Amino acid sequence: MTKNKRDWNEIGKAPTGIPGLDDITYGGLPAGRPTLVSGGPGSGKTLLGVSFLVEGAQRFNEPGVLLSFEENADELAQDVRSLGYDLHKLCEEKKLLVDYIHVDRSEIEETGEYDLEGLFVRLEHAINEIGAKRVMLDTIETLFGGLKDTGILRAELRRLFRWLRDRKMTTVVTAERGENQFTRQGLEEYISDAVISLDHRVHEQISTRRIRVVKYRGSTHGTNEYPFLINRDGITVLPVTSLLLEHDASSERVSTGLPALDDMLAGRGYYRASTILMSGSAGTGKTTLSAHFVDAACARGEKCMYFLFEESPQQMIRNMKSAGIDLKRWVDKGLLTFHADRPNRHGLETHLLEMHHAVEMNDPDVVVVDPITNLMAVGTQTDVRSMLTRVIDFLKTRGVTALFTSLTSSSATLEHTEAMISSLMDTWVLVAFDTVEAQRTRHLFVLKSRGMPHSDTVVPFKITSQGFTLLPVPARSVRSKSRGPQTARRPK
Fold first, then answer.
1. 294 close to 369: Cβ distance less than 8 angstroms
2. What is the pLDDT at residue 404?
3. Pairing with 25, which of 124, 371, 451, 488 sits 20 to 30 Å away (CA)?
4. Which residues are CB-neighbours of 258 under 8 A, at least 6 positions away?
5. In terms of domains, do 413 and 312 share one?
6. Assigned domain for 318 exists
7. Range of 159's domain?
8. Which of 417, 425, 471 is nearest to 270 (CA)?
9. β pairing state of 270-271 and 253-254
10. Is the pLDDT score of 253 beyond 50?
11. Are both 211 and 342 inside the same structural domain?
């Protein structure tokens, strides 16, 4: 991710080690101070807190204490084992200490003065035993159950957090979200150094998770909602909306895979690390053009990543053989990796995060997304455009050349794209059908290509067993060249 050159560390920060979260907090959580993490059931509060402790112990040499009021050590260890965290091992190594405090409302009886002195003693003993620098309280508002005079308890909790501040403990406190406030008991009133809100929402049967830094005293921070994902690799936050337009602009050119199409782009092809849009109606040859591009890139020894949202890799490989393109050889050599998924299997945020993860794992030079319009099934046009903007920014910062295909409906004009993302593209190639005397022929046209001269001629082509073949331009097309924008309309 591109970082702002300004030094954001206005106060001391404790890095969380959670990908993306340190970016939107500009360094991590406030060191030596408490942070409130609130959200509804299943939003990921406990997992975020445990990740903070585990990463601190493993990566930053900061042992941690987990004080739980809901689950015991064995239950917590089982919950986070799927994320690759071994709490028992960390406890054996004295890097982590888990203490479970059982609170049963039916067993609480208010007699005499109430205080949390016993909690102070247990917490201080745990901190001293392993030399802890981090503390997690999960979920401390359980203490409110069964007590009538919550004012006394709140006063004691204020004393607890002052005690933690005095000992410079970086603390995460998890709490359930209330109806009109961030917690049911108003904990944010006195845990006010930083407040992080987690949200798990379902829209049209598709679930999404979002994170927002509501408050961060003494530090600038990202204020937007950011998607985050919980999977086998733990928690990942994608702070893509904080990206800046600071990526490099390469002058190197890469072949389209078709010499004739290269000629239409000043004879040299696309710019490296640029974005290319291939749009047209069904059956016009968008995927075949993409396969030519990938085939040429792999032949140069470049690594390619192909995201499929319409067919399986096996079907793609078989279909391209009919056009004389053997993609399997590149798969066998490890130069081509497919990532196929159904658009409606996840929400847009999950697709976005999985694409990021796949790119980071494979580190490709070229990425193809085919087709982006299938994502419209799981989001609005605005949502899809936002997601693709994030993908494009991410790929540009990594110097990846990206090609996107877009399906244009037969009733729309040729210059229309369903996701309305053409303005984000550096080069836009249109493919279409033309019907003349009961004969259908395909045409190709370069609508735009930023930073280079390019042909403005509509060129006919055929798809044969040898792939794409661009045909000679009829005389009538050459004469109509001066008509300008009319050549970009759908051929009649």
1. no
2. 94
3. 124
4. 289, 292, 467, 468, 470
5. yes
6. yes
7. 13-242
8. 425
9. antiparallel
10. yes
11. no
Q: How confident is the model at residue 410 (pLDDT cuts 50, 70, 90)?
A: low
List pLDDT tens digits, range 222-239. 888 888 888 777 888 876
Please list the residues that pair with 409 across neighbouring strands: none
- Residues 470, 363: one domain? yes
Enter the pTM of the model: 0.70
Structurally, the chain folds into a number of domains equal to 2
Q: Say how far apart CA 335 and CA 316 lie, in whole Å.
A: 16
Instruction: Please report, for the domain that includes residue 449, its CATH number.
Output: 3.40.50.300
Model confidence at 371: pLDDT above 60: yes
Residue 298 and residue 203 share a domain: no
Specify whether 259 is located in the same domain as 334.
yes
CB atoms within 10 A of CB 4: 11
Same domain, 41 and 138: yes
Question: Is residue 161 assigned to a domain?
Answer: yes
The answer as to whether 3 is a domain residue is: no
Q: Which two tokens stand for residue 264?
A: 């239409």
Residue 4 in domain: no
CA pair distance 214, 37, nearest whole angstrom: 10
**Residue % of the chain over a pLDDT of 90:** 43
Q: Which two tokens stand for residue 273?
A: 């690390």
